[in-house]
Specification:
mainly alpha; 5 helices
Amino acid sequence: MGLDDPDLRSVALAGVFHDLGKIAVPDTVLNKPGKLSPDELIVMRNHPITGADLCGSMRTMDKIVPLIRHHHEKLDGSGYPTACRGERFPSRCAS
């Protein structure tokens, strides 16, 4: 991918912390065997925001917070939490 060492470190740390926000998702939702209800889906889709918020006050996580927040975005705009699309992805997505 042509990333330099600091960027590789950021990606590695984001891989560790990307689902941190799931601590705010009830176990009944996380472990549900079937399809999530619309309300449960909202709760689940908020975990990237929660994770980014939890890490956002740590200055050392500045480069990692956007990766945590947008790890479920998709280039076609079908991801979450902000439905970033194409050229707006990911650095210009609304936070």
